[in-house]
Amino acid sequence: MTMRDYLADLTNADSVELLWDMHTRKMADYGFDRLLYGFTYYRSGSFLGDPADFVILTNHSAEYTDVFLGESLYFDAPMVRWALENEGACSWSIVNEMVNTHNLGGSERRVLEFNRAMGVNAGYSISFKAVTQRSKGAIALTARAGLDQAAVDGIWAEHGADILLMNNVAHLKILTLPHSGTGRNLTRRQREVLQWVGDGKTMQDIATIMGLTSATVEKHLRLARAALDVETTAQAVLKASFQNQMFVVER
Length: 251
Description:
This protein is α+β, with helices and mostly antiparallel strands. It has two domains: 3-174, Transcription factor LuxR-like, autoinducer-binding domain (Beta-Lactamase, 2-Layer Sandwich); 188-242, Winged helix-like DNA-binding domain superfamily/Winged helix DNA-binding domain (Arc Repressor Mutant, subunit A), CATH 1.10.10.10. It is built from eleven helices and five strands, in the order H-H-E-E-H-H-E-H-H-E-E-H-H-H-H-H. The protein has helices spanning 3-11, 16-29, 62-68, 78-85, 93-100, 106-117, 149-174, 188-198, 203-210, 214-228, 233-242; strands at residues 32-40, 55-58, 88-91, 123-127, 136-143. The chain has a five-stranded antiparallel beta sheet, with helices on both faces. The two termini are 27 Å apart.
């Protein structure tokens, strides 16, 4: 498949699941067989917000993610910290430099030891350009077993520009697709009532438009707030908008 064909298929993907399947297979062609993508709209300084609001895509094993994500090891991961402070691509060779210059703390060493035990030894990280002050996205590309960092750096020297382009396009496409973070997808009725709220309609207006009682409209709003794990309807409209769950074209 040519680069043009791949990018055409990627930009025409109509679901996160389809895009991620395509992208993981394509990156494996370059030797990166495990990927971890993360994005949030709720960053504040070095704080990334509630993990429940993260968009997380990965093909790492549950054995890895249950600890790295579930036990919040990512917070002390050197390359995650690099991604928060930088944009672009970076070789994991800088971690070895940190080790050699004794610039790693105890918590960071724990992450490094865990990664090494899980075969996460060589790779590249890409930190995407932020679209707002509160957003941040990055992807970690882990090299397959048998490739050391020197070999990975050689791959990047030859194909890095293409790999960076494909990951940037994948990231931008993900931002346009409906997703639920780690929460639940809204039902059609829940989306519809939130859409009318977003259009400035009152509860009575929505009840009349949808042919429902005000009590039923409030029930759908309550369930939408619960699905999105927020307290107010205004928060629900904002979060559903961030997740591209409003004004969705039905497939």
